[in-house]
Amino acid sequence: MKVATNAARLVRQVLTGEVWPPLADRHAYRVGPDGQPFLLPGMGGVTLDVHCGDPATGYASDHLEPGASIRHRDPGANMALQFLTCVGNQVRVVSGPAAGATGHVIGQHAYVLADFTGPAAAELTTGDAVTVLAAGQGLVLPEHPQVVVKNCDPGLLAAMPGGTRPDGRLEVHVAARVPAEAIGAGAGMASEYANTDLMGAYAGLGADLSLGLEGLRIGDLVALADADHRYGRGYRPDYLTIGVISTGQCMMFGHGPGPSTLMSGPASAFYLVDDGDANLARWLHPQPAQSAQDPAVAP
Amino acid sequence: MTPADSRDHTVPPRLVTVNLLGAVEHPALDGSPYRIDRNGRPYVPTGDGGIVLGLELGDSAFALDADHAAPGACLVHADPAARQALAAYACVGNEVRVRTGEAAGARGVVLGKRGEEGRVVAGFAAADLARMRPGDEVSVRARGQGWRPPGLPPEVAVMNLDPGILPLLPIGLPGPGPGPETGSGTGTAAVAVGVRVTVPSRVAGNGIGRPAAAWDLDLQLPPPGPDGAGDVALGDLVAVSDLDVRYNMGYRRGWITVGIVVHGASPLPGHGPGITPLLTGPAAALRPHPDAAGHAGLTAAALQLQ
Questions:
Q1: pTM of the model
Q2: Which of A15, A200, B52, B139 has its CA 20 to 30 A from that of A3?
């Protein structure tokens, strides 16, 4: 994205975490939109075979978290990890058979979510330690003072298409536009933590539940209509929020594929380009051998 | 024939009443006194839980510069799981009784509840509330979950409602014969509910995707105009279109949910006046009748809290 930033003034901080297990309770079941009980995997641990660019829905899964789900054991350190980690940050495995493998953060979901190549992910499991090179919070676009950027590695921003247009608006490419009716769980929460579940993407369920979002892919950049995520997450007519789909299929009602927030401001400050290729896979699909040269983590 | 086989399955199960123990909440803040409002300004939250004086049913949800202020005392339990049970089983209209402190013996009524950690909002006569303090023990006579009033169309679900206060609310159930309210051309009888306003599901904020038996749903409504237009009052019934709250709260085209306004506005983005859901069903079977000027929801007079 061709846009002036304060990236040279941002710090890059070394954070640690570990792959966190899936969590359940002895009651096991949750409830779907029509009252159907379900027990489905997807959240926590290491979820294989789903990567950026793959469909977000269509799996027998709930709260599908692609790749590794990461937390820190200390509650305060965990909140720092969750708040300071940004989409596009590099994650390196430092223990276990996958040690040395690198991946990238694709979003937050009360876990930091990191996508690795299939072979690397196959060797990862609960308890493996990782290092996150966190940078991005505090990013400012001086020529777009109405736009607040968050959770975005400066390298990822540089790799994205678009940028400042002659008319002063910020051009952003998005793979899908999301209506305000789709905003589900996550409304009212901080926009530097977890993500915003989108309803209306329950593949295979009733037409009365659909908002036409069944085609979303993991890693898609999306535009949320009438959403103001500058200081949290709320409904505000004529505002716009750009996010990246970091989680997929949900069976739980009021939940669904979720974007992590990247930027937000008045709709008039943006110029959206509908671009089916607007996906993280295009800019930072994990390639361990080349990660040092990856634009998303270059200084 | 076994005894089980001989039961008449057309007879609805009898309700169970459970005495729950709550304690009046003390407001709590984390390390910083500030929260950030929807415009990015820091503010110190007031009225978010505990006892709020001077706020009553019928007051505007925007009457005070406060954060989620509720008309009465918030009840909690020290054990997190017991606190969730308190919120889940308490129903609007349940009688409560103060057991300790200067107001011991005072009677109150559950007006609604709030989600996440779980809070029950109990209303009292102003003189009783003024004698209460955080930590006072309050007994809640919980009943209502699992109830289905006779005549309720099968597609409509009721929740969080004490059977005893149904007559105090503008809820009209279809009678045994042809009533004044009938449904669409299918001949299905519909529930008619008087509400202050029907709002679209896109204003649903905090609470969406959460279980309606234990959470309220914040509505991201703007403050009323200078002439009071668009106002909602504490205790009002409000309808939300395209919202189904039977199994978590979520978007479903063609559905209606009706709730009671239990707390006031909030400066936080994604928050606002909150409703405790009472009824949910397809629009053909659950019909809100908005009356912006004349609506009366749950009142202190009807609850004999004055």
A1: 0.92
A2: A15
